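Forgive a beginner's question, but would it be possible to get any protein sequence you like and the tokens describing how it folds?
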Amino acid sequence: MQADAGHAREAALALHALPEGQRLQVLQRLSAEQRARVEPLLAELAELGLPPSLARRTLAQAEARADAPQDRLARLPADAVAAALATQGRATVVLTLAAFADAPWQAEVQARLAPELRSAVEHGLRSPPQIAPAARQALAEEVLAAAQRQAEAGRLAGPGWWQKVRAWMR
């Protein structure tokens, strides 16, 4: 439900960024239900006086952030993250799981760890270290590279894994 509201806000912002003629054309192509969700948000943006140029810049900045290694790592499936972390040293595993404590795959990856490593991770999460943004990015890049190596080597189970991992990493 919350994701749908977020998508509606993003859609309204994207529509607001369009010239009025194009905006109307797109709105005409939407279903009645979609229009009912987006039109009040468009009205709110207009009422606030948000210039379309600012909406365009905001969308461009969000797109640039979505391509950040940290975001690509968060989108990977738990299987790929677990396989990638299996090739890493203990410190990298602990720091990665501490740095990405809010990742959707966190619990599943932790459950797959060897008991002694899981204990170290749980301890690290109780008093997480301060991880600088550059270090967080470096951890994400390392785990993404390891996931790619795993996928290329064909060690991930199931057909089409490489295509799935490549899609999630984009």
Q: What stands out?
A: The chain has two domains: 2-66, 69-169. DSSP finds eleven helices and no strands in the chain.
